[in-house]
Amino acid sequence: MRVSIPGVESPPDKIHFSFEGKDVEARRGDTVAASLLNGGLLACREVGDGSYRGIFCGMGACNECAVVVNGEPGHLACMIQSEEGMVIEGQPSNPPHPDLPPAQLSHVELSPAVLVVGGGPAGLSAAATIAEAGTQVLLVDERPKLGGQFYKQPGPDRQIDESALDKQYRSGRKLIERALAAGVEMMSDVSIWGAFGRDLLMACGAGKSWTLRPRRLVLATGAQERPVPIPGWTLPGVMTTGAAQTLLRSSQISPGQRVLLSGNGPLNMQVAAELVRAGVDVVALVEQADLRWWANLGAGVLMAIAAAELVKQGMEYRWTLTKAGVPVLDRCSVVAMTGEDQVENAVVASVDLSGRQIVGTEREFEVDAVCLGYGFIPSNEIARALGCDHHVDPENGALVTTRSNTGRTSVESVWVIGDAGDVFGAYAAEAQGAIAGSEVASELGLPAKASKLVAMAMAMARANRSLRRHRGFQRGLHRLYKGTVLTKQLADDETIVCRCESVTLKSITRSVSEGVTSAGASKRVTRAGMGKCQGRYCSPTILALAHTNGFAP
Length: 553
Hints:
Elements: E1 8-9, E2 14-19, E3 22-27, H1 32-38, E4 45-46, E5 52-53, E6 66-69, E7 72-76, E8 87-90, E9 106-110, E10 114-117, H2 121-132, E11 137-140, E12 159-160, H3 167-181, E13 185-187, E14 190-197, E15 200-205, E16 208-212, E17 216-219, E18 223-225, E19 238-240, H4 241-251, E20 258-263, H5 266-277, E21 281-287, H6 297-324, E22 328-330, E23 332-338, E24 345-350, E25 363-366, E26 369-373, E27 376-378, H7 381-385, E28 390-392, E29 399-401, E30 414-416, H8 426-444, H9 450-480, E31 496-498, E32 503-504, H10 505-513, H11 519-526, H12 539-549
Parallel strand pairs: 2-8, 9-16, 10-11, 10-17, 11-13, 17-30, 19-26, 20-21, 20-26, 21-22
Antiparallel strand pairs: 1-12, 2-3, 4-5, 6-7, 6-8, 14-15, 15-16, 18-27, 23-24, 24-25, 28-29, 31-32
């Protein structure tokens, strides 16, 4: 369903492509996923049992929206732009290999002084700071548009009224413009597929293959939403809250007409309020944490001291939902989703302190979209491939990068910044990007002019203050939304844990009872974690089972 966002006008020109023989109307700048969803076409990838999957993560990590484009399988609908005359089909469970030999990509080798991977708040801030110091910097991002998941921007064909845009849009546009003005070289639609050393990375995209040999490497790869397997979570129409926000802010497409949001964390409330303002029927916001004000006075004071303006923004989101009559159900979660070819109903129940369903508290909502958001975990695949030291955060169980305040890691000449290292939000990420950028630029030679050195010193002082302030706010936010980390608590035996290979919880637990003694062995026996996403959406559950059953992770 196409909706309107203040300050963003839809492109007047319509384009058309076909999907499974049906005509699909689209707008330039929309992803194929957004265009399909707007046309009511939710199913993309077929799985072995004949059922289908649809858009889930919205960021190219889960591979659930794989489609065949002009005869070529393996394209992700959330990552490619709609174009006139495309012929698209849902990807079969066993896609045929193209008859023609693979295209020979032209190869390019680049040796930038600094390579920044990721075009979100942290990456853009670091790249701009480095370039402003007079150092060559190349920024690579796998998406077609800069801004990352937080500073999502509308398509270039849309007319923009800057005065009507919200602060999040404006801040993102300002940061992108700053990086471009500083002379940062940008490569969009390019993915890093191999990291063989801090000065040897391989990439592909934009019709070429790339060898990248930087002197300094800054990883700003952001975070992904934490997966929580729940019965029915593989139905088309069920997606992450981040995917819903991408559809809304980038393409002005609602995930559905009757939407329910469930999970843990402030993003759900923000997106629920944004959907309401866009005219969408939000049937409920379901939050795992205890949101009663008297239970959260300490967290509220901590947040207000650190960033009162963000507390005010959060209160505005809540007031938007209250005015619209949206029920906010705390200490609850979606515990099941049902439907034939797509999600049609969501069952909500209270949960106890361990995150398990309290039997007898169930209530059902009729929906055509469910958005799940249970917090974030760092996207640290490249950092781990390079051998950077990591450790487990005892509070949320996430693997985080061991790094200094500037983002410097245990590997020489490699920085990990923003949520790629540990999740503290976009504003803290942007501040750390500036701090890391200054350190990188210092190592490569600062500008000679005294005025520029003074300006850089003042900017770093502001960035350090901002980092302390926003990390303080995030600590309060973590207290407010504190809840047991969910892994397998809401799953039953038949719940699919590994989305790629359709491996159920029962299959994984059975492998343990039959003598499997490590998570790696369970992977080999059940194939859980061997699919396209490479364990991003099943490894937390498998590792939780490993810990529970006492075998090696």
